[in-house]
Amino acid sequence: MIKEKRLIQIKEYVVKQQSASLDELVKEFNVSKNTIRRDLQELLNTGAFKKVYGGIAVNQKKLEHFHEREIRNHHEKKILGRAAADFVEDGDIIFIDSGTTTIEMLNHLKEKKITILTNNIDIIVGSIPFENITIITIGGVLERKTKSFGINYNLEMLNTYNINKAFMASTGLTPTNGVTNASLLETELKKKIVKRSKTIFLLVDHTKFGQYGLTTYCELNNIHYLITDKMPSQEYQNLLKENLVQFIIAE
Question: Most buried among 25, 47, 179, 224, by the most CB within 10 A?
C-alpha cells in the first residue's frame, strides 16, 4: 500500500476508534512494527494525536455541539450567509460546507436553479422543498455534533464534478496555522474540496480571527474571497492582501 494512502487510512481508523495500540495497527494494516512506528510519528507531528502507553490516541479538544455554535453571534452569521448567497448564480455547481454560518445561505438560494454538493444534514433536508435545487450528498460517518458526514470514503467521486464555487466554514484562522477546523472527521473532505473548486469563499465572523482549531485544511493563499462582518485588524488586512485574498464586509 502506498504510504500516503496508508497514513490516511490509519488516521481514519484511529479517529473512529479514538485510540489504537501499536499491535492493533500492525495487524489491521499488515505492516511491520517499525513501519507503523514511523507512520505514527508522522501523525503525532501534526499535533492532532497524542502518544499513549502502547499506542496513539486522538488529541482533540472538546467539539462544541452544532446548536451551541448556532446561537452564538447568530445575527452576524445571518448577514454573512446572505452576502455569500449573492455570489451564487443560476447554473452554478457549488459546495456548501458544514457550519453554522454556511447554513444561513440556504434561505437566500431557494429561488436559484443550482446544484449543491454538501455533507451537511441541515442543507440536505432544508433543500427538499426546492425542486430547482439539485442536491448531491457526500456520505460517510455521521458526526452528530456538527450534523455532518465525515470520514468520507468516496472522495474520489468529487473528481467527477466541476465545482465552480465552494463556501467554506472555519473554526478560525491565524498567520501560522492558516484556515483551521475543529473536527478531524471533516478535514480530508475540506482539503479535497479546496483542491477541486475554482473559487473558494471563506465565511468567518470577526471572532474567528486569531483563533484556531485542531487541524489546518488549507492556507490563506488558497482562499479567493473572505466574507466577514467587521473590518479585521491591520495585521490581518495586510495578511489577506499579501495572500491576494479579497475581503468583503457584509452588512
Answer: 179
Domains and CATH numbers, the chain: 3-58 (1.10.10.10), 66-249 (3.40.50.1360)
What tens digit of pLDDT does each residue of 84-133 get? 999 999 999 999 998 888 999 999 999 999 999 999 999 999 999 999 99
Dist. CA 141–CA 122, nearest whole Å: 16
| Inter-helix orientation angle 22-29/33-45, to 10° | 110
Query: Cα separation of 142 and 145, whole Å?
Result: 9
Q: Mind giving me the DSSP string for 170-216?
A: -SEEETTTEEEES-GGGHHHHHHHHHH-SEEEEE--GGGBT---SEE
The cell for 139 is 456520505
pTM of the model: 0.73
Report residue 221 as a C-alpha cell: 493563499
- Lookup result for grid cell 438560494: 109
